[in-house]
Amino acid sequence: MTVHFEDRPDVGGKLFRLDWLLPVLIGVLGLIGVLAILSATNGIWERGAIQHAVRFGAAFIGMIIVAMIDIRFWYAVAYPAFLAALVLLLGVEFFGINVNGSVRWLDLGFMRVQPSELIKPAVVLALARYYHDLPSWRVSDPFGLIGAMLIIGIPMALVLRQPDLGTSLLIGATGIALIFLAGVSWRIITLGSILALVSLPFIWQFGLRDYQRSRVLTFLDPARDPAGASYHITQSKIALGSGGLSGKGYLQGTQRQGGYVPENRTDFISTVIGEEFGFIGSIGLLAVYIAVIAACLRLSLQCKAVFSRMLILGLSITFTLYIFINLGMVMGLLPVVGVPLPLVSYGGTVVLVVMGSFGLMLSAHLHTSSLLPRSD
Amino acid sequence: MAKSRKSRQAVEAKSDAQMTRRTAILALGGIGGFGIIGGRLYQLQIAESENYLALSEENRFNYQTVLPSRGIIRDRHGEPLASNTLDYRIDLVSEQIDDLDLTLKQLGDIINLSEGEIKRIRRDVKRRPDFVPVTVKDHVDWDQFAALNMRVHALPGIVPTAGEGRTYPRDAVFSHITGYVGKANDRDIERDDDPLLLQPAFRIGKVGVEQAMDVPLRGQGGRLKVEVNARGRVVREWPDPSDAATPGQDVWMTLDAPLQRFTAEQFGDDSGGIAVVDVMTGELRTLLSMPTYDANLFVSGLTQADMDALNNDERRPQYNKVLSGGYAPASTYKMAVMLAALESGLVDPDRRIFCGGKVKLGNRDFHCWRSKTGHGAMNMRDSLKQSCDTYYYEISQVIGIQAIADMARRLGLGQSYGLNIGGERDGIVPDPGWKRDRLGSGWRMGDTLNASIGQGFVLATPLQLAVMTARLANGSQAVSPSLYAGFDRDSFASLNIDPDHLRLVQDSMWSVCEEPGGTAFRPNGLGIAGLDMAGKTGTSQVRGISRAERATGVLRNDELPWKYRDHSLFVGYAPYDRPRFAVGCVVEHGGSGAGRAATIVRSVLGEALRRDGLGARTDAGAERTAL
User: Scanning every residue of chain B, which has its alpha carbon at the shortest distance from the alpha carbon of A310?
Assistant: First the structure.
């Protein structure tokens, strides 16, 4: 297939036509992240806040560049990108380096990448293209279903082996949401739900590792391990709860100063915001996130092509699930799985991947008039 | 299968509409999800906020364990045998340190840090969480501690602290008694659920009195309320007097520290054990094993070099010979044989038995120590005075081994006394039952002959020999030793031995020391005018002498290597007419009993009496029934 690009990319015009609401909201989240990391590191810029700001800035520029590139290019590279991510994931299987007991990283010499982060947008890209290419009457037939299942299932299995239960479930949930959006029949949805419920005990028995089972059990019964996993949750709830309505004030959080909440620079960053800015701050943060997601939905509704819509919806579903899982975990509603709070938590690959995803969404929206091939 | 453009558009429009509808369904789900998150935030931060605020205050305050002062171990006069000194130590908190190399280098300029110490510090820093203090150095001397305190503001993360450390007298003569303290190991912690054991600076008794009396010595920990900030670091203390630690109780020993020191000086470089016991009360005035070791070394942790030096010393400094050392009592056992013979009524003490230097039993010769000439005709008193082996070979065959063994046990041999210090050995008083149980073989007459002169299977500790002597001297009570002062103990059981028989034994023991011809006779005796002593020598063979050697007499005992020489034994008491102290003494490889051991005991008894006002008893003990 050949892809035609504009002979003279009209960068200035595109920048003007770009939907700027989303980048602005993202910028606000980045600012919140930098300030929260600064507080989590006792006001010392060098312990992460600067790095986060620099990476965020670079990723922001990257996002705009991704947005400028024609959606037809992204359509063209959807499958190759998916395959490349799969290869990297397989590489982890053989050449992965062990960090903190999990094998999730690849050392490329100049940098370490975490293929399980890359695979998330890659699965969405592949599924979006898959459903774009698939005639709508085939969505519910075995052919259509099996293809989608493979695109979702293979990376899920590889990620689960690392082991990374959180990411694996995230991929699965996003994938299922996309199948649902593609219009699979309610009959199959019902059947699938029943099948999932029936297979739960087997997954519990054979699919999970001991520590993963113990995390879930600890979540259901915190008294099992008061000094271990439930310590995180207890301290995190104390930090949030003691913030009250308006919080203890910026850089004033005693829980944070006491270092009682572990990982408060990364996965538990929202405890810092909750303690120092209270309920108002927490709801405020939530509101910015809701605004980001609403902006994404708006972009998707303004798109014509299935590829574009599914790309935007899939990526924003991943983003939303990130937020749910992270906040649910911090508040003791879900078991502790290592999922960062996107754009606010300290972390390199995640910022790059999330910002790249927003770049793709913006590109899809910006190039909505670019005609994508459609098979019959 | 091309469809018409129209129908395709219709299908697409239908599918678009469906996707929009389903997007709305997912959006509804999202709204629900955010609703749950918001509700939970309301619950945590508004509804239950006060509760969590209280919990967060609790987090800010913490209780630190305050270690109790360990009780002091004292001698009978109150002199400390184990006490506490201010101990300066330096800790390091790695989370407050940016450059460990630099800090260690700066620290090394102020206090001495060896390569090994630096290596251990680095290892500890790596192994522990950043906020847990790591010991840089224990037992820092005051000069270095002061120098460090002057510059500590420039060394963030370095924490000098003053605590208490255990210390033992430098002359080390109480090490086997006091034992020492050390860090609790995993087994200790499993056995004992006192949370104090988890404190890195806490020490528990490892051996000796420190271990036996560990619980009363330990005391109870207190606590200190502290305000902690980042990573549990203390920012303020909130002391409350009712939370103070309860110091451990002092433990008083019956020992007489100056006498113990004097005794150690008499031993010099020799190896062995000696016990001085009060004939009336059983209180131990001296309980000494030589050579000793420095218990202080164990408190801070022994270096490999120290350990090797201790382990490779052929005189075995760590071995508590006075309580645990089993020695053939040799001729000091003869009093038991003699008393058994008298009590049996089978032997007339005046009847003379001829010693020609050896006794034939079957085709075996049993030699007297004076094997060349023999002692000639001996009555019972002379046989003890000159320690004639032949006499005992003969009478033991008459009275039998069981009578001997029974008497030995009545005199306190073959048993431990429950001193509550650890390491006490039972020794061995052999009889046919014992041999059957332990060796699975029958008793032979030759065994009886060997036992009759305290050789063969018989084993006794120096403490048991002292107790035997105290019972012989006391004459009426089965004196039992004690080491802890202030113990109300029941009066001793009666010895239940005919006083006339005991008097003959005592008189014979007097003749050993005070009559010319006695094996331990010295013209000026104790060296204290008007006071006589009584005793018995013993020479215990370590290595059998071959027939050839005996024939040629080429090798004198002191020509053999140290470890093959005979043990020198002596038991004695004084004053003879009003017994006050009894002593049992073994000098390992010290040669004949008349030589080394008797000399030591003579001067120790003299010193003990001098320290006691020459035996001028004024307390209740003087009321003892006259013999």
Answer: B19
